[in-house]
Design goal:
alpha+beta; seven-stranded antiparallel beta sheet; 3 helices; globular
């Protein structure tokens, strides 16, 4: 386990490579909801960003008032890394623009989505083998 600001160069490089992640949120009954998603790590701020539709199940899970914890995992062969932390849905234009900008740097410019929201994850734990 390590803190996001104490990551090795190899781990940071792994999070700059283009990999899809799995993102796990918790439904109100406590069962996991796991989906593929593009996530971008901001190690200086200790957060990770994602973009999604405001009507998605993961957004509903996070806004239901239950457990905001999430796990974000990316895998490439034997290399893997998981980020754990608390997530919040951000609907304000500044946060959405920031998340879109970061997403475009790592993946590609996303298509227009008028219902887009940002997920901001405060990373509290990093696990992995890179």
């Amino acid at each position: 386990m390590s803190r996001v600001r104490e990551l090795t160069d190899d781990v940071l490089a792994f999070w700059r490579e283009r990999h899809l992640c799995t993102v796990t949120t918790l439904r109100t009954d406590g069962s996991p909801h796991v989906i593929p998603m593009g996530i971008v790590l901001d190690p200086e701020a200790g957060v990770a960003w994602g973009i999604t539709s405001g009507a998605s199940q993961k957004v509903r899970n996070l806004e239901a008032g239950g457990d905001p914890r999430v796990a974000v995992c990316q895998v490439d062969g034997r290399r893997w890394c998981t980020l754990e932390g608390g997530a919040e849905v951000r609907r304000d234009p500044g946060s959405v623009e920031e998340a879109v900008r970061r997403y475009a740097e790592r993946y590609r410019t996303p298509s227009v989505n008028p219902t887009r929201v940002a997920l901001r994850i405060e990373v509290i734990r990093v696990l992995g083998n890179v």
